[in-house]
Design a protein that fits this description.
The structure is a homodimer of 346-residue chains. The first copy, chain A, is of the alpha/beta class and 346 residues long. Helices cover 42% and strands 14% of the residues of chain A. Chain A has three domains: 59 residues, lambda repressor-like DNA-binding domains (434 Repressor (Amino-terminal Domain), Orthogonal Bundle), CATH 1.10.260; 127 residues, 3-Layer(aba) Sandwich (Rossmann fold), CATH 3.40.50; 130 residues, 3-Layer(aba) Sandwich (Rossmann fold), CATH 3.40.50.2300. The first copy, chain A, binds a DNA duplex (30 and 30 nucleotides) through helix 2 and helix 4.
Chain lengths: 346, 346
DNA sequence: GGTCCGATTTATAACGTTTTAAATGAACCG
DNA sequence: CGGTTCATTTAAAACGTTATAAATCGGACC
């Protein structure tokens, strides 16, 4: 009386929701192995089998179990992005992540994010990820010339892409913005407007792109033979008020700079505010050319000239490069230097 | 000659790097089961065994394999956060994520992020996550009164926390900012400064917190018996330039509002720029009280009065609440309404 | 007619963990 | 001393997948 009908035996469809390889196997009559092979388009499977399996899989909405795949293959299907604490303003990190996510959209990869609480000390986080295989690849920004994170990853052969270059002899994948070109062009534009004493606001010196910016600035300045000034008390990572106060103080002293190349929108706004304390007006007594990474600045202050860095695109490129690197392609073409959009018509 | 010494048999230490339960078992002489039990502090294990196992585990740097745990238990140890496309500016999303990450810091949970490419259409993404068990919990923002995402999750009993409230009768966990209190206070401050025709810039009407803001605004306006204005062509999600242009146009017409309650920093900046087109100066012809979520606005434009919303804290609270919800605590105390910091001394 | 081959398919084991049920052994009791 | 209990430990199975090796089969070949 308590017997269940024999015919129900082996029917796993109603069991517990999620369809598995087993479900498809029961439905098609093939073995689990065959189904697995068919789905991964392995060569030894006959065309009709492959087709049938794919049909059924699609019909019941089969999706491979990530945990099982990961356990078996060792691949995590996870990309980890390290978020710097300085990225809190103007969506730097968010834009990058949107781009990344777009590149990962039709892949099995998920994006996990690890914020750095302590600046630069993410070496522990990285070695943790590498040692325990928590991800298949890593993304991070703000590299230093001999960045210990890059060294660690290179030594371990762990796939990664940086936003920013280093000076290691071993080449590694990066996607960077040509900050030399940016600074050079920005400074030239200031000079073209008749400014005779440009100043550049740089990121902290330890970062590679600080050197690039400085180099571009100096090249333009020397070519034109004009005076210049480089503030050593402030950088782009400073709190807004510190930049503002510095500018305010500087504006009250002699030989005030009359042109500013700003590596970020916030520093440009801070500069405007600081200068206005002494009645100096943008476009009259001085000009600004700034790097633009959002829509904010140019809309709020159209008088600030801007040169665009597309961080969403950067993120997308980083994603593509990382996927290629994980796939094992050789590192040729994995070093991308994005050029500023310079409108020569202007 | 090719024999390996018997003594090496079973020694898994050198095998392939990562230590596993097996490694600890071999090292201590206990069975794998016992080790697993000891590490998870199961009750039936003797104190000394537990201690010994923990020692060895710490010594060799054992870390449980996430994939294996997930496969066996069905728990993913993953929290998923949905990122809206509107969060690209001023680090809204980043702040929230930093807070979240802080709350998750000493837990086994990882944070995976899914950007929404299409506004509001993330219902598919959510049902995908729910159906395939891709995460143990979900975090998202910008709720609507009868948000379909909330409905779906409630129906499936899937753990989540929203930033923002709904009007469903079934209570669900949320962490929200008291936008009524904010708008009420902001408007009162404008009136206290002698402004007689305040305007409020609201988020899109479909969002719950739009109603809250409106309600706070109207309450203050009615109490004081002053005129008011609510623009219907713009909202906080509009591109900066659209708000700026609107303000510019409005400033050229009669009965221009003389006080602005802004729900975001960007709209405040846009307002200032637009008003200045007609020579109207902040602090002279009009005042602004804005919600502040970053350090930008108050440093750039100290004349804008601000009321702070701490999004990092919000994220941290959301993390705590979600963990509690996942742990199965009943939903009492899972509805957090954060109060604006109102400095009564001022 | 047996052997071998290529083309498919399949059974089995394994990844590292947790769970269920069973085993061990000491202590206790009648 | 046999039986019962309790505290601890253990063996075995399972989660869903992939990799390795083996099986099946029709036909080609000598």
């Amino acid at each position: 009386m308590t017997d269940t009908p024999k015919s129900a035996t082996g029917d796993t469809r109603l069991k517990s929701g999620k369809p598995t390889l087993r479900t498809i196997a029961d439905l098609t009559g093939f073995a689990v192995t065959t189904v697995s092979r068919a789905l991964s388009n392995a060569p030894q499977i006959s065309t009709e089998t492959r087709k049938r399996v794919h049909e059924v899989a699609a019909e019941i909405g089969y999706l491979p179990d990530r945990a099982a795949q990961r356990l078996k293959t060792g691949r995590t299907n996870v990309i980890c992005v390290l978020l710097d604490p300085h990225e809190e303003i103007l969506g730097y990190g968010i834009s990058l992540m949107h781009g990344l996510a777009r590149a990962l959209q039709d892949t099995p990869y998920h994006l996990i994010v690890m914020p750095n609480f302590i600046d630069g000390a993410n070496i522990d986080a990285i070695s943790h990820i590498v040692r325990n295989g928590m991800a298949d690849g890593l993304i991070f920004s703000r590299t230093e010339p001999f960045d210990p994170r890059v060294r660690l990853l290179l030594e371990n052969g762990f796939p990664f892409v940086t936003h920013g270059r280093t000076e290691f002899t071993t080449p590694h994948p990066y996607v960077d913005y040509d900050n030399f070109a940016f600074a050079y062009e920005a400074t030239r534009r200031l000079i073209a407007r008749g400014r005779r004493k440009p100043m550049i606001i740089l990121p902290p010196k330890r970062m590679t792109f600080s050197q690039h910016l400085l180099h571009g600035f100096m090249t333009a300045v020397r070519e034109a033979g004009v005076a210049y000034e480089i503030p050593d008390e402030i950088d782009l990572d400073c709190p807004v008020e510190q930049i503002r106060d510095y500018m305010s103080r500087r504006a009250g002293e002699p030989d005030t700079p009359d042109g500013f190349a700003c590596g970020g929108e916030v520093s440009a706004l801070a500069t405007i505010t600081g200068m206005s304390d002494h009645g100096l007006t943008l476009g009259v007594e001085y000009d600004i050319v700034a790097k633009r990474t959002s829509k904010l600045l140019s809309q709020i202050q159209p008088k600030v000239e801007t040169i665009y860095e597309d961080l969403t695109d950067t993120g997308a490129r980083m994603g593509q490069v990382l996927l290629a690197r994980i796939a094992g392609d050789d590192t040729t073409g994995m070093q991308v230097l994005l050029q500023p959009q310079i409108d020569f018509a202007a």
